[in-house]
Amino acid sequence: MNLSLYFVTPDGAAGLEALVLAAVRGGATLVQLRDKHATDADLIPVARRLVAALAPSGVPLIVNDRVTVALASDAAGLHVGQGDLAVTEARRLIGPDRLLGLSVEALDQVERLPLGIVDYVGIGPVRATASKPDHAPPIGFDGLARLVAASPVPAVAIGGLGAGDAAAVKRAGASGLAVVSAIGAAPDPEAAAQALAAEWGAA
Ligand SMILES: Cc1ncc(COP(=O)(O)OP(=O)(O)O)c(N)n1
Ligand SMILES: Cc1nc(C(=O)O)sc1CCOP(=O)(O)O
Ligand SMILES: [Mg+2]
């Protein structure tokens, strides 16, 4: 699992497969299918197509929130947050071999939750972001560094991140950055991903 450039798909994106493949050509190392409004029945065929499309690149597909979609599409993993099913239940349902990611927003969560059963944590939001209207209060890069230091598993930073942020994310100790709009809303998503990947490599 390479967390360095984690592309989280925009809600309800048109041309999703082309967008994801452009992100991967540009250097995205992990992709998350995130759609807060579609039904499971709508998302299962989408996830199946993405799993097949990503196979030649070896980039894993993680499904956000929905165990049923992850299992039905044979996705590489699942990402859950504090308002989703419990992380122990998520691990039980997906089994030991799929990747499991958990969002953490505060130190007490890092200290209290059984992080030994997850493969990575998503820490944020670093900054406020319109991509997640119900986000927790922003923690900034100092907050990110505190949570990364307390986490026993690799961490990816998320929330309001984009060009110019890779060095600060790396300094905070995270293993990468996760973005929605920096790639998904870019005029040229492949070029945007390429620039972020290059920035991470140089940081
Ligand atoms: C990599 C990553 N980190 C955090 C999140 C947020 O998950 P969650 O808090 O469950 O919020 P939603 O994405 O479900 O709205 C994430 N999706 N990915
Ligand atoms: C999906 C998600 N989770 C967050 C968290 O803080 O847990 S912030 C976020 C959205 C990130 O979108 P953008 O890159 O456009 O800011
Ligand atoms: Mg969630």
From TrEMBL:
Gene name in the database record = thiE
Reactions catalysed, as given in the entry: 2-(2-carboxy-4-methylthiazol-5-yl)ethyl phosphate + 4-amino-2-methyl-5-(diphosphooxymethyl)pyrimidine + 2 H(+) = thiamine phosphate + CO2 + diphosphate; 4-methyl-5-(2-phosphooxyethyl)-thiazole + 4-amino-2-methyl-5-(diphosphooxymethyl)pyrimidine + H(+) = thiamine phosphate + diphosphate; 2-[(2R,5Z)-2-carboxy-4-methylthiazol-5(2H)-ylidene]ethyl phosphate + 4-amino-2-methyl-5-(diphosphooxymethyl)pyrimidine + 2 H(+) = thiamine phosphate + CO2 + diphosphate
Q: Which GO terms describe its cellular component?
A: cytoplasm
Q: Which UniProt keywords apply?
A: Magnesium, Metal-binding, Thiamine biosynthesis, Transferase
**EC numbers, comma separated:** 2.5.1.3
This chain belongs to the protein called Thiamine-phosphate synthase
What cofactor requirement does the entry state? Mg(2+)
Q: What does this protein do?
A: Condenses 4-methyl-5-(beta-hydroxyethyl)thiazole monophosphate (THZ-P) and 2-methyl-4-amino-5-hydroxymethyl pyrimidine pyrophosphate (HMP-PP) to form thiamine monophosphate (TMP).
Lineage, top ranks: Bacteria, Pseudomonadati, Pseudomonadota, Alphaproteobacteria, Rhodobacterales
